[in-house]
């Protein structure tokens, strides 16, 4: 079995109700560490060889037909008694975690004590990692004339694993095999096997022919003050009940070795701690089994009336006498459950002098009846109901502009002049701007050496827009001629740019268009078309941020006659009104320079203007026409589907009807910080997202519509 498969199985392991998520995570992490520290990348089934897997308690008793051979199953790390050390052995570790020798349920819990130190702790995970896939198919019973492990041992019989039985009180599997014709004076031992392979041999047992020994199980019952309780009936499975005497003592004097059962004291009006004790006689009488009786009349609760799903709910329990006073000395744990099931106990109920505080959590809305058990008498039973409501998820919205900006600006450059590559590319890279380049097919077809520049521009993140084949005035063309102009330019772009499948934008040559021209563009699948100012205005007209005329997009022709103050004022105006402004530019440099383009402005003026845009920081989003147009269309029809909301996590999907008809531009999602959250992280389809939180406690992150489930998680 590959290590990667083991780790995957472990990730999918579910623990029963009552094992907290934190503990489950710690156990899984500890086992992953232990497996990696073993240095193995593959694991195979082997017979157990560790010292902790040796059988040390083989005993033999004479019967009329032969002898009973009794021993306890040992396979260090196999905590669920199924013959195999595996990931599933974490489950009993979680169930019995924290138990220690002396606890009433230690008989059952000790199977998870891998290092045999009398406690079930995180260190017991190590035994699983060190003995992973150790397997016991059964035991070979062997005989020898000498106890020497290196002596001659002969096979007597093989006992399959299935012949072992887990005692009714729990604990390790027990084997009771009746052997015919045993030899008095012989030494016997058991050796585990897996297929044809043998593991560590157990300690030998000398068969003396003696009958099964008997032991005494005894204890004392006292009241809350420590005084003896006489006349208490104490039951033990399969035995006649014993009665305590004047000193509170009781006794079962003839309990056979190997017996197991449950001790239960009973008396009207009394609750005993513990309510029962599990006993298992393993070659020793065991410690005294004492009980303390409390005169309990009622269990008072401060159970809340309602709560929220997946939220911690705390309440108090009080074990009191008939006067309502807490029972001093009443110190024990209790079991909590719910109907319907599903309640998780995050902090168990542990009584200290009659008072306990518990914390629970419910997975979904509904009304749950909460019960307590393990205390006995009038203290067991329903303690009330909690009505669980669904949390109201925070309101999700797509921000008007990417990143929560106040305004949007598109920088466009027409005609495909050489200077756009020689000066424009370095210039835009310096400022982190991506622009829209209006491509005229004739310009590149007449100089094929420039065709690779189209790929270069796309790789740098710039948009390639259709500026026609010959820069013809479309108003003067027929519908078919317009289509031919558009088709020639589009083919040039797509044939020479790998990774590009969409040309969505058109820059009208000479800024000329009318409704007929726009209708032809629409029939050819174009979604955005940039025109001019449509009249002389002092400031560049803005496009509506929500419902612009997509095939009549306004722009301001930034010619060389435009004064700098007016150029910068366009930025100030768009930020003030929060719209979408498109700058229409051509040349970069000085008129008369080769390849400088039409109506140029010096690069120094571009830099001064870009500095002005940058001075607004995150308040302005600068992006190509097709990207901003795609953002608007996706944003306008975006739909949120809430999949899950708890106090710790929000899962949702974001979708729109556009699919791959638009650029895959991320949408900025905003949500208020939920109650009790102070920090958050987010991911989409398992990939981390960058999260920003402003001082108004608004969380923002970019999401791809249709890109998979988005998970927002409370970090603190």
List keywords for this structure.
716 residues; alpha+beta; Immunoglobulin-like; 5 domains; 6-stranded parallel sheet; 5-stranded antiparallel sheet; 42 strands
What's this model, at a glance?
The protein is α+β, with helices and mostly antiparallel strands. The chain is built from 13 helices and 42 strands.
Structure, described:
By secondary structure, this protein is an alpha+beta fold. It folds into five domains: 3-206, Immunoglobulin-like (Sandwich); 214-264 and 280-289, Immunoglobulin-like (Sandwich), CATH 2.60.40; 298-389, Sandwich (Immunoglobulin-like), CATH 2.60.40; 402-632, Glycoside hydrolase/deacetylase (TIM Barrel); 638-714. 19% of the residues lie in helices and 30% in strands. The chain is built from 13 helices and 42 strands. Strands 27, 28, 29, 32, 33 and 34 form a six-stranded parallel β-sheet that branches. Strands 3, 4, 6, 7 and 8 form a five-stranded antiparallel β-sheet that branches. A hairpin with a 5-residue loop joins strand 10 (233-236) and strand 11. The longest helix has 18 residues, at 479-496. The radius of gyration is 40 Å and the shape is elongated. The chain starts with a helix and ends with a strand.
């Amino acid at each position: 079995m590959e290590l990667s498969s083991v780790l995957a199985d472990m990730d999918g392991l579910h623990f029963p109700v009552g094992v907290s998520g934190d503990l489950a995570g710690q156990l899984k992490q500890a086992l992953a560490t232990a497996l990696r520290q073993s240095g193995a990348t593959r694991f195979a089934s082997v017979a157990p060889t560790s010292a902790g897997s040796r059988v040390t308690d083989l005993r033999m008793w004479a019967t009329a037909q032969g002898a009973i051979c009794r021993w306890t199953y040992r396979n260090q790390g196999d905590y669920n008694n199924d013959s195999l050390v595996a990931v599933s052995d974490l489950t009993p570790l979680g169930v019995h975690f924290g138990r220690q020798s002396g606890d009433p349920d230690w008989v059952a819990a000790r199977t998870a004590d891998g290092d045999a130190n009398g406690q079930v702790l995180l260190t017991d995970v190590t035994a699983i990692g060190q003995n992973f896939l150790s397997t016991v198919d059964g035991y070979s019973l062997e005989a020898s004339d000498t106890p020497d492990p290196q002596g001659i041992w002969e096979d007597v019989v093989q006992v399959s694993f299935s012949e072992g039985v887990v005692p009714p009180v729990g604990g390790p599997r027990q084997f009771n095999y009746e052997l015919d014709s045993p030899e008095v004076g012989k030494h016997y031992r058991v050796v585990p096997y897996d297929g044809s392979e043998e593991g560590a041999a157990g300690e030998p047992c000398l068969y003396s022919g003696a009958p099964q020994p008997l032991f005494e199980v005894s204890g004392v019952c006292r009241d809350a003050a420590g005084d003896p309780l006489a006349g208490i009936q104490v039951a033990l499975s399969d035995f006649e009940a014993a009665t305590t005497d004047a000193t509170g003592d009781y006794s079962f004097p003839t309990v056979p070795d190997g017996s197991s059962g449950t001790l239960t004291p009973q008396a009207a009006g009394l609750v005993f701690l513990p309510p029962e004790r599990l006993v298992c006689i393993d070659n020793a009488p065991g410690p005294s089994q004492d009980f303390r009786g409390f005169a309990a009349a009622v269990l008072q609760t401060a159970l809340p009336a309602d709560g929220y799903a997946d939220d911690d709910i705390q309440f108090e329990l009080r074990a009191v006498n008939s006067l309502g006073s807490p029972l001093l000395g009443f110190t024990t744990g209790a079991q909590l459950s719910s109907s319907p099931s599903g309640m998780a106990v995050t902090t168990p109920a542990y009584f200290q002098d009659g008072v306990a505080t518990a914390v629970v959590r419910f997975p979904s809305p509904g009304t749950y009846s909460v019960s307590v058990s393990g205390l006995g008498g009038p203290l067991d039973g329903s303690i009330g109901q909690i009505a669980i409501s669904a949390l109201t998820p925070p309101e999700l919205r797509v921000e008007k502009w990417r990143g929560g900006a106040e305004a949007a600006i598109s920088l466009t450059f027409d005609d495909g002049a050489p200077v756009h590559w020689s000066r424009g590319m370095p210039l835009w890279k310096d400022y982190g701007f991506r622009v829209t380049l209006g491509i005229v097919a004739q310009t590149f077809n007449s100089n094929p050496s420039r065709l690779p520049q189209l790929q270069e521009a796309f790789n740098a993140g710039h948009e390639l827009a259709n500026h026609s084949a010959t820069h013809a005035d479309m108003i003067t063309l027929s519908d078919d001629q317009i289509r031919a102009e558009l088709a020639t330019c589009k083919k040039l772009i797509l044939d020479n740019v790998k990774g590009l499948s969409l040309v969505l934008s058109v820059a009208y040559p000479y800024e000329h268009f009318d409704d007929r021209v726009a209708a032809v563009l629409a029939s050819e699948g174009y979604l955005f078309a940039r025109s001019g100012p449509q009249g002389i205005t002092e400031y560049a007209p803005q496009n509506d941020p929500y419902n612009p005329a997509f095939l009549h997009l306004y722009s301001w022709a930034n010619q060389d006659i435009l004064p700098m103050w007016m150029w910068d004022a366009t930025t100030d105006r768009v930020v003030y009104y929060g719209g979408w402004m498109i700058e229409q530019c051509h040349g970069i440099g000085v008129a008369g320079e080769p390849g400088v383009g039409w109506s140029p402005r010096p690069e120094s003026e571009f830099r001064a203007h870009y500095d002005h845009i940058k001075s607004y920081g995150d308040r302005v989003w600068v992006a190509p026409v097709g990207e901003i147009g795609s953002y608007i269309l996706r944003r306008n029809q975006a739909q949120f589907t809430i999949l899950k909301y708890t106090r710790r996590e929000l899962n949702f999907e974001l979708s729109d009807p556009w699919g791959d008809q638009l650029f895959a531009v991320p949408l900025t999602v905003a949500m208020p910080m939920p109650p009790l959250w102070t920090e958050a992280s987010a991911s989409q389809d398992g990939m981390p997202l960058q999260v920003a939180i402003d001082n108004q406690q608004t969380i923002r992150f970019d999401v791809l519509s249709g890109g998979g489930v988005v998970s927002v998680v409370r970090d603190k």
